[in-house]
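Quick start: load a record and inspect it. Here is Exopolysaccharide biosynthesis polyprenyl glycosylphosphotransferase:
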Amino acid sequence: MIKAALGHTVRTTTLLQLLFDFGFVFVGILIAAMWIRSGLPIDPVVLVSYAAILALTLLAINSWLGFYQRIHDRTVEDSRARAVLSLHLAVPVAYLIFLILPIAQVDRVFLELSGMAALFGMLSHRVFASHRKTKARVTHRILVFGVGNEAVKVTAALNQEDPTIQVVGFYPGPMCKDIVVPQDRVLPQTMSLVDTAVFYKVDEIVVAMDDRRGGRMPLRELLDCRVSGILVLDMSSHFERMLGQIRLDALRAGWLIFGDGFRQGVRRSFIKRVFDIIAAIILLIIFSPVMLVTALLVFLEDGAPVFYRQERVGLNGRLFNVIKFRSMRRDAESDGKPRWAVTNDDRTTRVGRIIRKVRIDELPQLFCVLNGSMSMVGPRPERAFFVDQLTKEIPFYAIRHSVKPGVTGWAQVRYHYGASIEDAVQKLQYDLYYVKNHTLLLDLVVIFETVGVVVGGKGAQ
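Running the structure step on this input writes:
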């Protein structure tokens, strides 16, 4: 993994896949042009523009289809199906680009052939790479420093997050008394920590000690490991880096206070606000026909009002009215008691179930973005009743209100639709990651993945 210049952690393999896919199409077209350039004197500007646009378009399509997501149990057949679908989507887009660019007919024939060849070659390589990856996965070897309850938590999370990760064993810290992990997984202390890590070819050490006070941490040995090229992380940093979340069960207030992140400067706020306004205007223009049809369908099924206004908690705990298309019956809370919206909620109308599934009910929130109450990307705005309840029961919950709530968010694209305190805990871990690391890059990643969620129909059921 690498830390991107704008703050968000990016997996090295994903970045290399993106660069390879872009380069395969872009360079492939340029090489083909040079090969037969004497017969077809193509305008270099048009050629480079076409190659770049087609390569970027294919990256967008592949991203929507999940080529770059961390899905480890994907079969070769699934990868092939996605490659075929990507090719079918890319071909009409390529022809549309042909029509837009000022290309002569003789050049058009060449670009069509070279573009299709590059697309087919790249997607064939993607299927081959997926097939090879299922046969031989690179293993990331981790040594857990500690043998107590914290070490058990780390191992349980590692077993769920990535099958390419291998825990080589547990190294007891100084003065360790209670050993909770399996005895046969405890590494002998006949060698120093750094020698043990080198012997077992460890890539990373995760410090998972129940008590780190009073000089109980062997700082010198951990420093030796670090300068030897072995990554050393505490539990919170490890989960942040590997899972894109800040785990509450590994979180300490000191880590939040003294760590990096939480950049809320004037420059960042200005860039985010400009991005919000431009994105909201563009989306309102694009989806205005969809919004008009939705408003008509909501009215025909259940009458007025078409919109649903409700008080929510926003930036720094201030209240504002969120606007959505009404997806529930008018008497959904006739008893006056707030209730969680749940999957397959019996209070939703027929139109409501559809627009919630594809997130159309969220579109009117773009007006909240324009008036400054919300952002395009941020934590989901909650009702004051639930905020009061969750703040009392979940530590650090109030931190999510240090940024504006969003139409979409990191938690929404990473976690399924939640409707309980347990779900709120899980989503808060992603919200904390966003609040700590939010950048323009991460906003673009969230919006890009939101498109995939909508296209794949992965919204509320």
